[in-house]
Automatic annotation (TrEMBL):
UniProt-listed Enzyme Commission number(s): 3.2.1.52
Cross-referenced Pfam families: Glyco_hydro_20, Glyco_hydro_20b
Keyword Chloroplast set for record: no
Location of the Beta-hexosaminidase bacterial type N-terminal domain: 37-167
Broad enzyme group: hydrolase
UniProt cross-references to Gene3D superfamilies, sorted A to Z: Chitobiase/beta-hexosaminidase domain 2-like (3.30.379.10), Glycosidases (3.20.20.80)
Signal peptide, first to last residue: 1-19
PANTHER family, per the entry: BETA-HEXOSAMINIDASE (PTHR22600), BETA-N-ACETYLHEXOSAMINIDASE (PTHR22600:SF57)
SUPFAM superfamilies: (Trans)glycosidases, beta-N-acetylhexosaminidase-like domain
Coiled coil location: none
Name used for this protein in its record: beta-N-acetylhexosaminidase
Assigned keywords, A-Z: Glycosidase, Hydrolase, Signal
Length: 677
């Protein structure tokens, strides 16, 4: 047969649905959430002797009356219920127990001293677990609460890991930024306990669009904002998890919120602005009609001891000054007078003031402007680039201001800033988050990398000398939506009959055709534990895409199942990145024995991403395998778990379909979750 006909015949064969009867092997632990072994944040001193404290008959008791002790008990009981489906009861007399108290109790103080684990630093604690029980002894009540967050991480199905820990934070203020919007309840109810578990002690709450009474009366309350009742509820929830609340109400600049619905046009800083950004500081109505009444509401609703008033990027968009009287005064006087006016008003309400650094401490004004500001203003220095040294932190501190560093989501940023803060003996750190004023759900699905950054930053803020947090993506997913520590039976599926590409590429004909230095050879074949799942890996069911290296592959591949399942786990990726976020690059067709079908779309970045794409923008896929190529490139393959809405019906087959775009769907493992009988 001529070579051209052979090639044509092969292409036609590959373009058709590829059905294969796979080997399906039942296993007792198809999915099993495994307790993490690293503690986050890492304690200053920790030892882990061999052994575990049995859970049978183990109870809990507190010594003292501080609210933090009851919060600690609540969190531990929640951990037991979530992870083990068990109740952590009150401790029976004469049995090993979890005992929580402080150095104020003489007996506990003596026990901590005898154990050689005492600490007197604020928020510090001693913790030990041995055959005699578990003890948490805080230097203060907050320290006892922080110790309980560490004890939670020692829980395993077999018992509490033996440990000897003495710990305290490196910095006084450890702040995480959260948002209030119409989606607040669903998100903040998960975030706040997570932030407490990570030992933050303050939340900076973006509050521009809270539906203040003042804004409602003025007609500029945005319907996407949270209600005052929700703001108060979140503040209470935060405080009951050991978190102080600092509302952030952006002023001077970023004040689009006060112009919603075309209102307050007389207060524009720039009367000609088409998208007003700043306000007129020389119009008394700016303060009497808008700012002061809202600040008063915020202090009352949040019980705030500090309010962050923004004051950043003031001249980034509008002309400032723009009006003739403002030009006559000049920027520096306008900025100082506005800041002092707000500061003095907040002080009359019993609240301190915090600002961002950039407008008041820029190179052009740092020699003159800061000297005119009250020294009790706290300054948050934001810098979102990873570095080892941030000298301006020390410079601002030497000018007499309390300083906090503010990091964002790039790896290394929080670590470098935290070390600079400790070096300058500054107040602490803020982990910022910029997911949009009405984008709360994106912290899980859309901009989840900013949630992952909470985890990394927590480690750096508590203990800057520790190594960077490993597996932060997995930890974030588990802390935000905790899973039980129990195994689910199921079955691995051997895909070898459907494989179109090997994971290795010794001859530039495997994987993506780039040779042995850039393939997936380090993802081993056979039955492997990948994250919380087990997969039988034999190669890749890679489908067609736009790239020439995969243009001859099939557009669809079918795997026969013939079994029931509660869920299906897909270990999958794409050979190349998608051109557009959320681009639909293909789908799974799940066909049932009764002839019906369901479709699971594959949106790039949301359900699937390329093996070279490390940015976890969505937590819908679980972290799966992570490793490196032979030439050192970091790569990963996530896991998508599809929940079966018809678990009682036999699944006939699963078909992977490619849209033939740049990102070509590639299935590497398929595991059925559930007994499947």
């Amino acid at each position: 047969m001529p070579r051209t006909l052979i090639t044509l015949s092969a292409a036609l064969l590959l373009a058709t649905a590829h059905a294969a009867p796979p080997q399906i092997t039942p296993i007792p632990d198809a999915r099993a959430q495994i307790p993490a072994t690293q503690l986050v944040p890492q304690p200053k001193r920790a030892e882990f002797p061999a052994g575990t404290l049995a859970l049978t008959g183990l109870g809990i008791r507190t010594v003292g009356n501080a609210p933090e002790l009851n919060w600690a008990m609540r969190d531990l009981r929640t951990e037991w219920k979530t992870r083990l489906g068990a109740t952590l009861a009150d401790a029976p007399a004469g049995k090993p127990a979890i005992t929580i108290g402080t150095l104020a109790d003489a007996d506990l103080a003596a026990r901590a001293k005898a154990a050689g684990l005492g600490t007197t630093a604020a928020e510090g604690y001693a913790l030990w677990v041995d055959a005699g029980g578990a003890y948490i002894v805080g230097a203060d009540a907050k320290g006892a609460y922080e110790g309980a967050q560490t004890l939670r991480q020692l829980l395993t199905p077999a018992g509490l890991r033996f440990a000897r820990i003495s710990d305290s934070p490196a910095m006084k203020e450890r702040v995480a930024m959260i948002y209030l919007d119409q989606y607040s309840k669903g998100v903040n109810d998960a975030l706040i306990p997570m932030l407490a578990a990570l030992k933050y002690n303050t939340v900076l709450v973006m509050s521009n669009y809270v539906q203040w009474d003042t804004a409602k009366a003025g007609g500029y309350a945005n319907p996407g904002g949270a209600s005052k009742a929700e703001a108060k509820r979140v503040a209470t929830l935060a405080r009951e998890h050991g978190l102080e609340v600092i509302p952030l109400i952006e002023t001077l600049g970023h004040v689009e919120w006060m112009y919603y619905g075309g209102k307050n046009k007389d207060l524009y800083q720039d009367p000609d602005s088409q998208n007003p950004f700043a306000y007129d500081t020389l119009n008394p109505a700016t303060y009497s009609r808008v700012l002061f009444p809202i600040f008063k509401e915020a202090v009352e609703v949040f019980g705030a001891r500090t309010i962050h008033i923004g004051h950043d990027e003031v001249r980034n968009r509008d002309r400032f000054p723009a009006r003739a009287n403002g030009k006559a005064a000049g920027f520096e006087k306008l900025f100082v007078d506005d800041t002092v006016k707000i500061h003095d008003y907040l002080k009359s309400l019993g609240a301190n003031t915090m600002i961002w650094h950039d407008s008041a401490f820029s190179d052009s004004v740092i020699a003159t402007l800061p000297a005119k500001l009250p020294r009790d203003i706290q300054v948050a220095y934001w810098n979102y680039a990873p570095d080892r040294d941030y000298p301006i932190i020390g410079q601002i501190a030497k000018l007499g201001f309390g300083v906090l560093g503010a990091s964002w989501d790039e790896e290394g940023n929080a670590d470098g800033l935290a070390n600079a803060v400790v070096k300058a003996k500054a107040l602490g750190m803020i982990q910022t988050r910029w997911t949009g004023y009405f984008g709360n759900p994106s912290i899980w699905d859309g901009q989840a990398q900013q949630g992952v950054a909470y985890v990394r930053a927590a480690g750096a803020f508590w203990n800057p000398e520790a190594k960077a947090v490993a597996n932060a993506e997995s930890l974030y997913r588990d802390l935000y939506a905790p899973a039980a520590y129990r195994a689910a039976a199921g079955a691995t599926v051997n895909l070898s009959a459907a494989v179109t590409r090997s994971l290795t590429d010794n001859d530039e004909k495997g994987w993506i055709g780039k040779g042995p230095d850039i393939d997936l050879r380090n993802l081993k074949t056979g039955v492997q534990q990948i994250g919380a799942y087990k997969f039988n890996i034999s190669g890749a069911v890679m489908l067609r895409g736009k790239r020439g290296a995969v243009s001859d592959l099939p557009t669809r591949a079918t795997v026969e199942i013939g079994r029931r399942a509660d869920a299906i786990a897909f270990l999958h990726t794409a050979g190349w990145p998608g051109a557009v976020a959320r681009e639909n690059i293909g789908h799974y067709e799940i066909a049932y024995a009764d002839g019906t079908k369901l479709v699971q779309p594959l949106e790039y970045g949301r359900h699937i991403r390329a093996w070279t794409d490390l940015l976890p923008t969505s937590m819908i896929p679980a972290p799966g395998w992570a490793g490196k190529t032979a030439d050192g490139l970091e790569v990963n393959v996530p896991v998508l778990e599809w929940k079966n809405p018809k678990p009682g019906m036999v699944i006939k087959s699963v078909t992977l379909v490619s849209e033939g775009l740049n990102a070509n769907p590639t299935l590497i493992g398929l595991t059925l979750i559930g007994e499947g009988k």
